[in-house]
Amino acid sequence: MIYYSDKKRKQIAVSALINGSKQTSEAYSIPEDQVMPYLENLVNGECSLFEVIRNEVLTSAQNKGIRSTCESWGLSSECLEKLISAFPEFISSKNYCDTCSLINPQELKTWSNVSVQPAGPNDESSPKKKRKTGEDKRKVTNYSIDQKIQAVKEFVKGTNQSETARELQIPAVNLMRWRDKIRKESFQEPHVENLYGVQKRGQRNKMFRDLDGRVYEWYKENKDRKNIDEELMIQAKNIVKIDESEPAISAIWLSSFKKHYKIE
């Protein structure tokens, strides 16, 4: 029998609850009869089932990012963003757990279509929704690319990301989305496909446009330099360097960027 840590056992149990023991057994390459005790421990544990699953999803979103978590759990980005907004510090309220603990395993498979609320709909203690006045409406801020990058730098280096988000007065879900886009997409293939793809798929992403605009502004002031290709790659790296890790810059982006701006 393979030994797993408590955290890994919990992950296997949650997978078995959602996907079934057979599929989980194949995914983790362990015997099916080893999966069932993990599931039983989860069911009989002190925490409610939904609370355990919710915390697993939120932890994944914090560590792996929104896109990866949505793919792993089969969730829509809208559902995950609602969940993060409802629990910015990953702390549940008693009312919420009491309400959601009534959901059975079969219903959990379709929970991504359910709108997440911080309190149960039948909870009389829940405050009534008030019509917002002009003063209550949340101010919408359009952040520049420089402001987004600087905010993400502060966010990723903070020991308590929820607290950092509050200090920045920017929702944590926005900061996580910007972080993932900068780390995993900017100046890489998704960036190229969105801005320069032959098949236009929807609206061009503003962050990608702004990033290329930054690089092009630098180029106009430095186009007489030697080794301009290398200089452009370095400039792109410097723009999206948000921590100690080295940003990945795709050669496909460089060629597409030069072609678009007619750089020889």
UniProtKB/TrEMBL annotation:
One GO process term, biological-process aspect: DNA transposition
GO molecular function, a single term: DNA binding
Domain HTH CENPB-type: 199-264
InterPro entries, sorted: Homeodomain-like_sf, HTH_CenpB_DNA-bd_dom, Transposase_8
Domain of life according to the entry: Eukaryota
Key word GTP-binding present: no
Pfam families noted in UniProt: HTH_Tnp_1
Entry keywords, A to Z: DNA-binding
Region described as Disordered: 114-140
Record protein name field: HTH CENPB-type domain-containing protein
